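User: My advisor, Dr. K., asked me to get a structural model of this assembly before our group meeting. I'm new to this, so sorry if the format is off. These are the inputs:
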Amino acid sequence: QVQLQESGPGLVKPSQTLSLTCTVSGGSISSGTYFWSWIRQPAGKGLEWIGRVSTSGSINYNPSLKSRVTISVDTSKNQFSLNLSSVTAADTAVYYCAREPRPGGAALGAFDIWGQGTMVTVSS
Amino acid sequence: EIVLTQSPGTLSLSPGERATLSCRASQSVSSSYLAWYQQKPGQAPRLLIYGASSRATGIPDRFSGSGSGTDFTLTITRLEPEDFAVYYCQQYGSSLYTFGQGTKLEIK
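Assistant: The format is fine. Below is the predicted structure of the whole assembly, which you can bring to the meeting.
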């Protein structure tokens, strides 16, 4: 049973870089064909997709965040990571990592496994 | 960017009743790429439906999805107490995913 677990600082100062890691357990991040995404949710609000990565090197970002986001994958650690630079209070949210299957190589278009989420607050 | 608008914002029903949730897109969405999620307080979203009408693994058959183009529907027949939650639709296209604002299904 594949599980995802987010980790990282719960408090980040304005203008600094938010860094989170998602650890995949119960399976190899390199096995099968998947996209690995980051999604966030401000308190009491809806969901916003941040970006995705695959172990084959494909990376896509939400255009609204693209200038500040970097997502990378470390297959040796079975992890993928999110860096979001120049954060403001508007970046305060619960951050989720999620898996998207790619049957036959094409995106399923839906996220079948999610981490439990980690709350990140941007404040001085 | 495709904007998804869900209605109603809040739906008040009783256990045993039928729930119909709507998701309307600002432009046509491929039916292959429309999904529905359930989210309970303090939990991550749970995939219910993908490809507009395919149930995810372990999802009861009282949940069904339908629709095409710009109008999609999630139907829950015979509401169970555990079904009261927030529901989100989500679309994928041009390497971008967007979500609706959610419908809260509450106990009447």
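One thing worth pointing out at the meeting: The interface with chain A takes residues 1, 30, 32-35, 37, 43-47, 50-51, 56-57, 88, 90-92, 95-102 of chain B (CB under 8 Å).

User: Perfect, thanks a lot.
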